[in-house]
Design goal:
The protein is an all-alpha fold and about 220 residues long. It has two domains: about 60 residues; about 120 residues, no CATH class. The chain contains eight helices and no strands.
Length: about 220
């Protein structure tokens, strides 16, 4: 593309330079005038070549920096995702989620909501069962917020979407599928809730894969 532009510019220089204009037979020019025209044309051509060379160098520099920035963003994305997955906080959330809501099972909204609504102010710390239920429900919401944040960063081009997809597509879509009823009910009252996550899930989910019962392995959020 750049080569074509440069050739086009040079063609324009040749076509419209004073030397390319056909003189009428009746018009005569002295040797000095022709010499001046030739000199001016040469200077103009050289200046234009310098400008084109500078433009080409600038484009090359921009492309090189863009590639370096892309590589850096991909590396930062991978490090962020890896550090998150191995962090103790994230691993604790996954463990607490499994207490009441096992993986690969749809989370019932009423059951989740009942546990989530347990008031911490009136919670008897000796009631370990209720404490664990509350933590399990809270962890579901925390994981949803975590993936919503990642989806927002991808949408705003703050992290690399391709790297994120290759790294977390499976675990994210599996969790969203499990929590789809919770997401749906929450969004009935707050349509903006998890908007980025829902949009990303719809892009990433496997629309053809089936489970052992013949249903979609990753159903849309609005499927009830």
């Amino acid at each position: 593309m750049l080569r074509t532009v440069i050739l086009g510019i040079l063609s324009g220089v040749i076509l419209f330079s004073p030397l390319a204009v056909t003189m009428a037979p009746s018009v005569s020019r002295s040797a000095a005038e022709v010499s001046v025209l030739t000199y001016d044309s040469t200077i103009q051509t050289l200046l234009l070549l310098v400008a084109v060379s500078g433009f080409a160098a600038t484009i090359h520099t921009i492309n090189q920096r863009a590639k370096e920035n892309l590589d850096q963003r991909r590396l930062e994305t991978m490090l962020m995702l890896i550090n998150t997955r191995i962090s103790q906080d994230y691993r604790s959330l996954l463990e607490e989620r499994r207490i009441l809501f096992p993986e690969y099972q749809s989370i019932n909204f009423d059951e989740w909501n009942a546990a989530y609504q347990i008031s911490e102010k009136t919670l008897d710390m000796s009631d370990s069962t209720r404490i664990l239920r509350k933590r399990s429900a809270d962890s579901v919401l925390a994981i949803l917020n975590h993936y919503e944040f990642i989806a927002l960063c991808i949408d705003k081009n703050l992290i690399d979407g391709d790297v994120a997809k290759s790294s977390i597509r499976g675990i994210m879509c599996s969790f969203v599928h499990d929590a789809r009823f919770v997401i749906l009910r929450v969004r009935e009252n707050s349509p903006a809730a998890f908007a980025n996550l829902v949009a990303l899930y719809e892009q990433w989910r496997d629309k053809t894969g089936q489970d052992e019962y013949g249903g979609l392995r990753e159903e849309p959020v609005w499927s009830v």
